[in-house]
Amino acid sequence: MFPLRILITEDDHVSALLLKKALEKNNHHIIGISDSGERALEILEESPADIVMMDINLAGELDGIRTTEIINEKYDIPVVYLSASTDAETLSKVVGTNPSAYVIKPFNIRELNMVIELAIFKDRKEKELQKLNNELEEKVKQRTADLAEANKELTRALEKEREIGELKSRIVLNVSHGFKTPLTSILSSAQLLQKYAERDHPFKAKIMKHADKIENSVRSLNSLLTSVLFFGKADANKIDYKPHKMFLMAMFNEVVDVVRAGSENDVKINFKQGKLPKTIVSDHDLLYQIFENLLSNAVKYSKDGQEVDFEVYEEEGILKGVIRDRGIGIPEKEHDQLFDRFFRAKNVGIIEGSGLGLSIVKKCIDVLKGDITFDSRQGKGTTFYVSIPITK
C-alpha cells in the first residue's frame, strides 16, 4: 500500500494517538489530528488529504455525520467512520452519507489497513466511473448535436430533392404536351399523303412507302411520349384510381385486336376466356395499360411462327391474367431489374423498345393494389402472372 495523507478526527485523545501510531507504522502521513468537526474542516482547508478517519460522536456543533456531509460536498475525498456504536439508528444515519468504510472500535490494525485500502480503491473506482460517465454524457451530447445537424442537412436535402423532382415532372409534362400537337399534325399530313397517293401518280409507290414510315415513326414517338407523360404524373403523385362500371370482355377483346393489328411479327395469339363477370367496377385505363403492354411485349419478343397464350379468369374476387410466350426470354441475372424504368435485357438485340412498358405495368398494378410475378428462361420464353382485386 502506497503512503497516504490522512486526517484523523477523533475526540478521544488516546484513541487518536493509537490510531496515528498504527497508521504511521504503515508509512502513512498524518496531516493532523482534530477533536471536532470544525477543526477538521479548518485542517482540510489548509492541507489536502487522501482520506479522513472520522469518529461519529464529536464534541461541538458538528458531529461526525454532518462533518462528513460537508467534506463530501466541498472536497470529495473518502471518509472512513470510526465508532463503537452499532445500533440501527446510527447505521441508518451513516449509510445516508455514503461512507467509504465503517470501522468498529476497538479496531484491529490489520483490519484497519484493509479497510483503508478498500476505501481508497472504492473511491478511485467511483471517480473513474464518474469520469467515464461524464465523458459518455459529453459524447452523447456531441453525437446528439451532430445527429440534429445531420437531420437538418437531410431535411434540407430532401426538400431540395422534392423541389427538383417537382421541377423535373413539370418540365417532362410540359415538353411532352408540347410535342403532342406537332406530332398530331405530322400524323395527319402522313395520312393525307397516303390518301393522295391512292390516285394515279408517277411516285405513288414511293409516296406510300415514306408516308407509312412517317406514320409508324410518329406512332412510336407518340407511344413513347405517352409513357413519359405517365411517369411524369407518377412522379408527381397524380395517378389516381378512377373506378367505374366497365364491360370486362369488351376491354380484353380490344386489347387483343389492337395488339394483333399493330404486330409486325407473324405470331398467333391464343386468347382463352375463363369464368369472368360481365361487368366490374375498376379503372379501365389502368387495366388496359397492364394487359396491352404485357401482350404486346409477348408478341414483340416472339419469333415468326410462334404462339402467345393469353388467359383471363376470375377467382374469389381476384382478376387473374396469364400471358405466356415462347420467345427470347430474360437472362436470369437480370430478373431483378425487369420492372426498372428504361431497363432492357441485353439479349433484345435490334428489337426496338423504350424500356418503359413493364415499369408502367408495375406502377398500374401497384395503384390497383394487385400483384405481378413471372417465370422466364433465356431462349425458352416468359410467363407473367397478374392478380388484381376487382369489385363486381
TrEMBL record:
Coiled-coil annotated spans: 118-160
Domain Histidine kinase stretches: 174-392
Domain called Response regulatory: residue spans: 5-120
Modified residues (4-aspartylphosphate): D55
CDD domains in UniProt: HATPase, HisKA, REC_DC-like
Keywords: Coiled coil, Kinase, Phosphoprotein, Transferase, Two-component regulatory system
Organism for this UniProt entry: Arthrospiribacter ruber
PANTHER family associated with the record: SENSOR HISTIDINE KINASE RCSC (PTHR43711:SF26), TWO-COMPONENT HISTIDINE KINASE (PTHR43711)
Protein name per Swiss-Prot or TrEMBL: histidine kinase
Molecular function GO terms recorded: phosphorelay sensor kinase activity
E.C. numbers: 2.7.13.3
Catalytic activity: ATP + protein L-histidine = ADP + protein N-phospho-L-histidine
Main enzyme class: transferase
